[in-house]
Amino acid sequence: MEPVKNPLDKLPPILKKNLNRNLCVCNEVQKMDIINAIANGATTIADVKKQTYATDGNGCCTRQVKRLIECIHAPERKKK
Ligand code: FES
Q: In this predicted model, what pLDDT tens digit does every residue of 4-28 receive, in sequence order?
């Protein structure tokens, strides 16, 4: 899979905040590190967990990680 070049462009403004804060508080994983892992090919929660340890605490950040995956790997809308 090709890496996503500008993953931040794919996120709605509300998801672009606090990039240097820990999104996964349990394991102290910064949001930007999770975004980069997704852009570089992680397409599932399991991939993200393996690469960054995010969601590997009690899973409280799972929904947010899922949302990031959905946005970053959303299929491009094709023009007709
Ligand atoms: S904040 Fe990520 S598992 Fe709890």
A: 999 999 999 999 999 999 999 999 9
* 33 is a domain residue: yes
Q: Residue 10 Cα, ligand 1 centroid: separation in angstroms?
A: 23
pTM: 0.92
Task: Please tell me the distance between residue 54's alpha carbon and the centre of ligand 1 in angstroms.
Answer: 6
Quote the pLDDT of residue 6.
Answer: 96
- Assess contact for 29 and 55: CB atoms under 8 A: no
Residue among 64, 6, 72 nearest 31 (CA): 64
**Number of domains within the chain:** 1
Q: Which atom of ligand 1 is nearest to the CA of 65?
A: 2
Range of the domain at 33: 7-72
For ligand 1, the distance from its centroid to the CA atom of residue 75, given in whole angstroms, is 27
Q: What CATH number does residue 67 fall under? A: 1.10.10.1100
